[in-house]
């Protein structure tokens, strides 16, 4: 069973940034140009690149589509999202060269519509992003760049998507995102038990190569690496060797 190590590039205003726990007021900018960083990741041997349009995630438009188009030419397959609100957005990303479209807010708010896209375009062309925050013993699902609360829960929607043909699930523990506190292994063990048919991508908090190995042992089928790579906690080459 394959396991993917996927470097991430988060975009805001066309620049590489990271947010702390999804807070737009706690942004760190990095000097690397997105295209240069993508070329570096491709040279290291990455097969996939994860791209987030943070402007789009919050405001509902594909503000960084030109940059995303350029990143698809770096030599990796790209999964990208942030701002996907309609099928027109899906087509724009496909036309830009994106291999898999990441759907988050609309996947929470309008699952029936997303299920239609899975059926029409093929489940392999989508990653369902159910980023979660633990509250009162419930895995809640904030949307709109994690700024809006929703009523549906992870334990409701993940099995629903599994039953409706989804193949890929990206799940971030929001409290750990950008914190270098390690993956929430309890979360990924839970998903491995409840939606074993989904290829789950772990995201949020990786700080070491041991975290990558632990996520794999917990049942994840891939890991998203952001801040740890940007700050040189380890090399992508070493992460891929895991």
From TrEMBL:
HAMAP family: HisA. It holds the Pfam family His_biosynth. The active site is at 10 (proton acceptor), 131 (proton donor). It comes from Dyella choica. Its main location: cytoplasm. It is an enzyme of class 5 (isomerase). InterPro entries: Aldolase_TIM, His_biosynth, HisA/PriA, HisA_bact_arch, Isoase_HisA-like, RibuloseP-bd_barrel. It is found in: Cytoplasm. SUPFAM superfamilies: Ribulose-phoshate binding barrel. This is 1-(5-phosphoribosyl)-5-[(5-phosphoribosylamino)methylideneamino] imidazole-4-carboxamide isomerase. Keywords: Amino-acid biosynthesis, Cytoplasm, Histidine biosynthesis, Isomerase. It catalyses: 1-(5-phospho-beta-D-ribosyl)-5-[(5-phospho-beta-D-ribosylamino)methylideneamino]imidazole-4-carboxamide = 5-[(5-phospho-1-deoxy-D-ribulos-1-ylimino)methylamino]-1-(5-phospho-beta-D-ribosyl)imidazole-4-carboxamide. CDD domains: HisA.
């Amino acid at each position: 069973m394959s396991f993917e190590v996927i470097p991430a590039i988060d975009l805001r205003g066309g620049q590489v940034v990271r947010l702390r726990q999804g807070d737009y007021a706690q942004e760190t900018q990095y000097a690397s140009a997105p295209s240069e960083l993508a070329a570096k990741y491709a040279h290291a041997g990455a097969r996939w690149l994860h791209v987030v349009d943070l402007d789009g995630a919050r405001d509902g438009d594909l503000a960084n589509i030109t940059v995303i188009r350029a990143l698809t030419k770096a030599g990796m397959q790209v999964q990208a999202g942030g701002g996907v609100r309609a099928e027109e957005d899906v087509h724009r990303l496909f036309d830009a060269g994106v291999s898999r479209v990441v759907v988050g807010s609309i996947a929470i708010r309008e699952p029936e519509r997303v299920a239609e896209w899975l059926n029409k375009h093929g489940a392999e062309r989508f990653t369902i992003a159910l980023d979660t925050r633990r509250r009162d013993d419930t895995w809640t699902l904030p949307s709109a760049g994690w700024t809006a609360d929703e009523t549906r829960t992870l334990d409701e929607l993940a099995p629903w998507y599994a039953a409706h043909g989804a193949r890929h699930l990206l799940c971030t523990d929001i409290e750990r995102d950008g914190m270098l506190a390690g993956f929430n292994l309890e979360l990924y063990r839970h998903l491995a038990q409840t939606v074993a048919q989904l290829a789950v991508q772990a995201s949020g908090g990786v700080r070491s190569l041991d975290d990558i190995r632990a996520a794999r042992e917990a049942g994840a089928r891939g890991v998203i690496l952001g801040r740890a790579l940007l700050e040189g906690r380890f090399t992508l080459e070493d992460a891929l060797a895991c």
